[in-house]
Design brief:
Blueprint: H1 7-12, E1 13-14, E2 31-36, H2 51-59, H3 73-76, E3 78-84, H4 90-106, E4 110-115, H5 121-127, E5 134-138, H6 158-165, E6 171-176, H7 181-190, E7 193-196, H8 200-211, E8 215-221, H9 243-252, E9 257-264, H10 274-290
Parallel strand pairs: 2-3, 2-4, 4-9, 5-6, 5-8, 6-7, 8-9
Antiparallel strand pairs: 1-3
Helix pairs in contact: 2-10, 4-5, 5-6, 9-10
The structure holds manganese (II) ion.
Manganese (II) ion (MN) is lined by residues 139-141, 221, 223, 235, 265.
């Protein structure tokens, strides 16, 4: 059974059909994946609670090779723990994600979080504080609002809270095109490096040099892609990045050491299957970029 004999995982996590349809023993794994099927703060088009389930289904049915390197998902050793047990309260879910990532990291494994809404990157990155990672976010949005629709912690504010809690965290956001002025003002003041979508590849080159040799956490909000190729998202923003550009960007980051990653905001209710297929492809590329040997 997924979760093995460890009481911690049994308490927090509900086993599911595994990612890629592959059962790797937890002890043998290089990556420990888990889902966060939560979308209750989604303001526009909820549905990302079905993201983890759909990503699992798609990864079990696609060819799991990489565009950029010889990569075999079996030897990459991914163990899928299952989904974080649901609770209505975002604060409780954040706590569960935090503890899960601390536990995964303590086992010497790389956490792979499948969303769900973007909010939980707050907990996941905070849990990896000891690794001193640079945070690289691919997102159409900045998520730097101080407050959104009455909540201080949600999918539109998580990065602001993270930037406040970890004042020395270096943050790069690429592919941005949906934001308000106050977010840009705060981001500049805080030193968040923002690359708008039309400067995407330029941003990637700058970034690859800046992160060489450092620990990196990659957070991929699938809405960074253009909605014509990834329509199944909560907040679509036209004029987005192409799949190959994002895949290439991910591999350029392998100049550093990837210590954690997430893939969020896949919302199957608005999808034709294109978004889930693109997400599965980019997940494979992130795993391939993170494996060093
Ligand atoms: Mn977004």
């Amino acid at each position: 059974m997924s979760g093995g004999s460890d009481g911690f995982y049994r308490y927090y996590i509900i086993p599911r059909q595994p990612l890629f349809g592959i059962e790797t023993e937890r002890e043998e794994a290089y990556f420990l994946a888990f889902g966060v099927p939560y979308d209750l703060t989604s303001s526009f088009r909820p549905g990302s609670r079905y993201g983890p389930e759909t990503i699992r289904k798609f990864t079990a049915n696609i060819e799991v090779n990489s565009y950029f390197r010889d990569f075999d998902v079996v030897s990459a050793r991914v163990h899928d723990l299952g989904d974080i047990a649901f609770d209505y309260r975002p604060s409780e879910m954040l706590k569960r994600v935090y503890r899960t990532v601390v536990k995964i990291s303590g086992e010497g494994k790389i956490p792979v979080m499948l969303g769900g809404e973007h909010t939980f990157t707050l907990a996941s990155v905070t849990a990896l504080k000891g690794k001193n990672p640079v945070l690289v976010v691919f997102d159409a949005h900045l998520d730097l609002r101080d407050e959104y629709l009455g909540l201080r912690i949600n999918h539109a504010t998580y990065l602001r809270r993270l930037a406040e809690r970890m004042p020395r965290l270096e943050v790069y956001v690429l592919g941005v095109r949906g934001y308000d002025r106050e977010e840009i003002r705060y981001g500049m003041e805080r030193g968040v490096k923002i690359f708008l979508c039309h400067n995407f590849m330029e941003g990637v080159k700058t970034l690859a040099e800046a992160v060489a040799g450092k620990n990196i956490y990659i957070s991929l909000d699938i809405d960074v892609l253009d909605p014509s190729i990834a329509p199944g998202v909560g907040n679509p923003e036209a004029g987005g990045a192409g799949l190959t550009d994002v895949a290439r960007a991910i591999h350029m980051l392998s100049a550093g050491k990837i210590v954690g990653l997430d893939l969020v905001e896949v919302s199957p209710l608005y999808d034709t299957g294109a978004t889930a297929a693109a997400a599965s492809r980019l997940l494979v590329e992130m795993l391939a970029a993170a494996v060093k040997e």
